[in-house]
Specification:
The chain is an alpha/beta fold and 233 residues long. The chain has eight helices and six strands.
């Protein structure tokens, strides 16, 4: 079970269980199992999760963060989104500094991390080969984003990390036309929802300078400021 601190919610318990038992995509399931069996050298003593990964956070979240998919040796190992990989270091560091998390690092799902006003999930729930799920696999996983949208608050901000996550959000919100443009720290009003787009904090982006720490922190500081403003309105 990955939902904290709302782990006693029957709705979230049921959803997490459905996700963890999902076997709709044989290619992804085989990849996750093989990765969990072979392991990465530095994690040889770690017991890999190797199953689809549910979302986690609080049910009254004002910030819903949607990523791409579990990392092969990150969430596929730890069983919690963004936990135990380099992207997670960027994400949880920013969430901590802007008051959305109680600690700035997360290495495993029982390390005491809790989110405040936030919920994290992804467009795909299994680690895909080369970080590249197919359109069919994303379509099969879409039901879980739909289920989360039904139970999370309608007010607040959706943060899409990367183009694939943004495409999933657009689909959730009815595929508006003209199609909104994806770029970093771009704010949209779509179907009555506030959606923010950002480059994903992958090494491909952070190590090349496409996404800098300054850009990343400005994004989260802007989100925190907007949530404060809206709560006073």
């Amino acid at each position: 079970m990955n939902l904290m601190p709302d782990e006693n919610s029957s709705t979230f318990r049921s959803l997490a269980s459905d996700i963890e038992k999902c076997a709709l995509c044989p290619r992804l399931r085989n990849h996750c199992k093989e990765t969990a069996k072979k392991k990465k050298r530095e994690f040889q003593d770690f017991s890999y999760w190797g199953k689809p990964v549910g979302g986690f956070g609080v049910s009254n979240a004002r910030l819903w963060i949607i990523g791409l998919a579990p990392a092969a040796h990150g969430a596929n190992r730890t069983g919690r989104m963004f936990t135990g990989d380099s992207s997670g270091k960027w994400l949880f560091g920013a969430l901590y500094r802007t008051g959305f998390a109680n600690q700035e690092r997360s290495e495993h799902r029982k390390d005491g991390l809790t989110l405040k006003e936030a919920y994290i999930s992804a467009a795909a729930r299994c680690a895909p080969p080369d970080n590249n799920p197919t359109s069919t696999e994303l379509s099969r996983c879409f039901r879980y984003l739909e289920a989360e949208m039904k139970v999370l608050p309608r007010k607040g901000i959706i943060l899409a990390l990367g183009q694939i996550a943004f495409e999933a959000v657009l689909k959730l919100l009815g595929n508006p036309r003209p199609k909104p443009k994806f770029t970093h720290n771009k704010w949209h009003q779509i179907g009555g929802r506030t959606v923010v787009t950002s480059y994903h904090p992958s090494r491909q982006n952070t190590q090349t300078g496409r996404l800098t720490e300054k850009m990343w922190m400005e994004l989260f500081e802007g989100i925190r400021a907007e949530l404060k403003r809206s709560s006073r309105a």
